[in-house]
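Ex. 9. Protein: Molybdopterin molybdenumtransferase.
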Amino acid sequence: MNPAGKPGKTGSLMAVEVALARLLAMAEASPIRERERLPLVQVQGRVLADDLVSTLDLPPWPNSAMDGYALRVADWTGEPLVVSQKIFAGQAPQPLKPGTCARIFTGAPVPAGADCVEMQENTEILADERVRFTQTMAPGQNIRPQGQEATVGELILPAGTRLGPIEQGLVASLGCAELDVIRKVRVAVLSTGDELIEPGQALGPGQIYNSNRVLLCSWLQRQGCEVIDAGILPDDLATTRTCLGELKDVDLILSTGGVSVGEADFLGIALREEGELTLWKLAIKPGKPLTFGHFRGVPVIGLPGNPASTLVTFALLARPYLLRRQGVKEVEPLKFQVPAGFAWPKAGTRREYLRGRLENGRAIIYSNQSSGVLRSAAWADGLVEVLEDRTLSEGDYVGFIPLSEVLS
Ligand code: AMP
Ligand code: MG
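Predicted structure tokens for Molybdopterin molybdenumtransferase:
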């Protein structure tokens, strides 16, 4: 680590936090508010439109956490008790006869008059079918109280919650069969570059296969977006203008490539002509150049073309932007601090997001961190964050963002 611990000097480069804050502010300025009502089984990956408030107590009545016997502790003198009823889950019990116990099973309602359930392992059944309790018991024991999970009127999930299997299960437990969710964000995906051809075709001289298109289209679908696959855009101004003009009814144009200050930056020229453009040089590696702008009022994010740069900038910037457009509050992925299983002898001026893995509790990194090497990310299970102006010895702590955090 840098012993002086000085704040990083990134020159004219923009810190990733600053870029993210700007993008999120822009997302908040054009929120998607239209909603649709969907059956609960179809809301995976979608965003809750309204606060979800419980209309019932959960559980609705006290119930048994064990297979055993329900009794009133004060009725127990040490003598065995007669079993006065048997209560299975799904049944409505009679009030407990004083001085007796009830056979009860997990999830069954505790009868009125009982204040404790003793598990069957701590009992003996005598020849006359009375039950001997072998241990002292306390009121409340093994009873799940009414409303322990939720009470009527309680806020369970705030608007803006992203829904996954756990939230769906929770909503089901409250009895809701349908939810109002924000409509899908419509994202047009464009790959730019004369060198690109689609997989399945024969590779000509100077050509490479388009990997970003499928990477982003399938990532966006996983995120609950509606994807408009706008194909490959050649490095040509007239076609760029026409193609952008044809993208009607979308919430975001997401392009890759052509955002460096290279001569083939036709996207930038088209945006300058018919909208506006901000070109950011970010203090991150991979992924330095990033474009944000508007084309005839439609927001455009231009990610750098190298596949690992596309991945990192989508994960750290475009994904949070899209989630915030739908009103999601928690848009940044979880990041853990883990010891580095590698040394980093040369401090960089940009924050690095290395493709890495956890092995024996330490982060290790793929041997080739070139931004053109997507294999590094296929091998990895996380992004290892090395701060700018830092050197590392093995065992120093680094940030680790699991890829699973950003891939859904
Ligand atoms: P650019 O930002 O257009 O200069 O592209 C940077 C690098 O990424 C170049 O090597 C491009 O060939 C490559 N690249 C751009 N777009 C794609 C894509 N869709 N799939 C794979 N590689 C790409
Ligand atoms: Mg290009």
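Check your answer against this statement. The longest strand covers residues 351-359.
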